[in-house]
Design goal:
Layout (H helix, E strand, L loop, with lengths): L14 H7 L39 E9 L12 E8 L2 H21 L1
Antiparallel strand pairs: 1-2
Length: 113
Amino acid sequence: MVLLVFQPAEEGRGGAKKMLDAGILENIDAIFGLQVHPDVPVGQMISKVGSIAVGGGFSKAEVTVGMFQGGNAVNVIPEWVTIAGTFRAFSHKSLNFLTQRIEEVSPKLVSMI
């Protein structure tokens, strides 16, 4: 039997956890994932045993700024902005370092505004 699984809410909102809690992966002997990656040319694919996405082979950590909101005119500096995103890492060491750097840099960025 082949089971095709499309993960909802992959970037944040707990899609994988909800799938696991629902029991979708019970009685599965093997699972294969597919992810688009900017370093792999269109029409080509790569594979390996184990993890290959963030931290698994391409990078030790990843920061994504997915939202930058502020103001309502293109020629006026807004009084405030909201910056939001995600960060993730393969190892606890990388995650701790990334968390530390975000906590160190964020106040400095705010003070420059």
